[in-house]
Specification:
There is one protein chain. The chain is α+β, with helices and mostly antiparallel strands. The protein has one domain. It has 6 helices and 8 strands, in the order E-H-H-H-E-E-E-H-E-E-E-E-H-H. Strands 1, 2, 3, 4, 5, 6, 7 and 8 form an 8-stranded mixed β-sheet that branches. Strand 3 and strand 4 form a beta hairpin.
Length: about 240
């Protein structure tokens, strides 16, 4: 499909009818825990400047786990395997919603790449597409054989370089993505003495992540409703 780029995450969300991001209270225990954890990690393992993948994942997981704890009812799986183009691929992180004791659906795919944005984007798009197919297969299992089934689905993607966070909405109708570096979390030694900028940037990024997850958790699984959701985008393109 064509890949339209939005100049802001808010623009993408507004097209999908999500006008307000999830507001994060800086005084909440979850947010304070996130900031304290990041600061402790910088002191203990060093800043994210030309760091290796394992070090970056330490910081990425902190932000993602806090987002999950704010919403509840979700699970995060590191290094999950999905089938991509007749082969298997390891996803850095997958966030899932538990449907019942046996079924679950993927709502967000996270890929970390150090200074390899294009490669990370391409990989994330393929993983999101495969996740949409997996979700559709899951929904088919919930339906009776004689029930009509329209294949409409969407999944959120996040691509993270050393400090920059990019957000993707991948649906069976089209792909929407941020095109500018609007969400940057600088993880350098100087923020230990003055974490004001860190708090501001983490708050902005968390509000987007939680907003995306909240939308996907609350969205109806009925194909007709998801189809209407996507049609609203197409009208506004």
């Amino acid at each position: 499909p064509n890949i339209p780029f939005s100049t802001s995450v808010e623009g993408v969300l507004e097209k999908y009818g999500i006008k307000i991001l999830h507001q994060i209270d800086e005084n909440s225990k979850e947010f304070k825990l996130c900031i304290d954890d990041i600061l402790h990690r910088i002191e203990n393992i060093g800043p994210v400047v030309d760091s290796n993948e394992a070090m970056r994942c330490e910081y990425i997981s902190t932000v993602l786990h806090i987002a999950i704890s704010i919403l509840r009812g979700l699970v995060i799986l590191p290094q999950m395997t999905v089938s991509v183009e007749e082969s298997s691929d390891h996803i850095d992180y997958a966030i899932k919603k538990i449907l019942d004791d046996l079924l679950e659906k993927i709502i967000c795919i996270i890929e970390g790449k150090q200074n390899q944005l294009e490669k990370g984007m391409a990989q994330n798009l393929m993983q999101c597409r495969s996740s949409c197919k997996m979700n559709l297969d899951t929904l088919k299992k919930k339906r009776k054989a004689e029930e009509a089934f329209e294949e409409h689905e969407y999944v959120y993607g996040i691509v993270i370089t050393v400090m920059d966070w990019y957000f993707i909405l991948h649906s069976t109708e089209g792909i929407y993505c941020t095109s500018k570096t609007e969400y940057r979390i600088s993880l350098t030694n100087d923020i230990i003495k003055n974490p004001t900028k860190l708090r501001k940037n983490v708050k902005r990024t968390l509000e987007v992540i939680v907003g995306l997850l909240k939308d996907r958790v609350s969205a109806s699984d009925e194909p007709a409703n998801k189809k209407h959701h996507v049609e609203e985008i197409i009208k506004k393109k």
